[in-house]
Amino acid sequence: MTPVTNRADIPLIPTPRLVRADGSAAVLVAIGCIGEGAAAAACDASGRLMRLIRRDLEACAGLRWRAGRGDVGQCAIRLDVDAAMAAQSYRLDVGRRADGSASVAIVGGDAEGLRYGVQTFRQLVRHSGPAVPRGAYRGRSRVAGARILSGRDPRTGAHAFVAEGPGRYPGAAQVQPTGEAMADAWRESSRESELRRVTDVAWALADEVRRATKAI
Q1: What is the pTM of this model?
Q2: How far is residue 160's CA from residue 172's CA, in Å, rounded to a whole number?
Q3: What is the mean pLDDT of the segment spanning 93-107?
Q4: What is the pLDDT of residues 2-37, one digit of tens each?
Q5: 64-83: per-residue pLDDT in tens?
Q6: What are the φ and ψ backbone dihedral angles of 207, each rounded to 5 degrees?
Q7: What is the DSSP letter of 86?
């Protein structure tokens, strides 16, 4: 795994494989456009990813942006899919335009990768508001063939993130407790029945591991 260099110091879930940030910020304009390229639109037929971004921009940054498809060249936030990238991977680039305002490009290797990239950007907005940390963010599901789900620890009620993957105990090593705000960023993309099942199994395995470790 590529070492993480996260000078933005934001606890992103799942942790990107690479973050290059210099500590500066790019400010999103008050009124702008979110655009989906043709490949992204095909993966997001309902436009849900754009709606999620719009909602967070308004709730966390006080910005009212519109969404569009097709010619996205003039949009400050652009979503697309590049089939040449690895499955479930994404790249998120936050830079500045000639006028100094923020420019954001989110590209996924497939529909899941695009979703991960969008969720990462939403976390940046929730953490920083309109002044988004400039940088290059590269990520992929931490387990091959996994999906990132969110749910609650059935014992404590605390939120957790789980990567569901192959094996007897799906994604048990990927349980990551976190706060309410970040959990909400992923909750909408998951099904509650799966969340309960996966988190119950993962926390049960964690208990088994702790007991086995004590017995050694």
Answers
A1: 0.67
A2: 11
A3: 94
A4: 333 444 567 888 788 899 988 899 999 999 999 999
A5: 999 988 667 789 999 999 99
A6: -65, -40
A7: P
SS3 call for 177? strand
Going by C-alpha positions, the residue among 167, 115, 106 that lies closest to residue 141 is: 115
Tell me the longest C-alpha to C-alpha distance in the chain. Answer: 62
Residues in contact with 147: Cβ distance below 8 Å, sequence separation at least 6, in sequence order: 112, 141, 163, 164, 165
Check residue 71 and give its pLDDT: 67
Say if CB 42 and CB 79 are below 8 A apart: no
CB 104 within 8 A of CB 87: no
Residue-range domains of the chain with CATH: 18-140 (3.30.379.10), 147-215 (no CATH)
Q: At which residue do the structure tokens 């091959």 appear? A: 144
Of 31, 9, 30, 32, the C-alpha closest to 21 is 9
First to last CA, the chain: 30
SS3 15: coil
Spell out the residues 6+ positions from residue 71 whose beta carbon is closer than 8 angstroms to its own. Answer: 35
Tell me the two tokens of residue 194: 């799966």
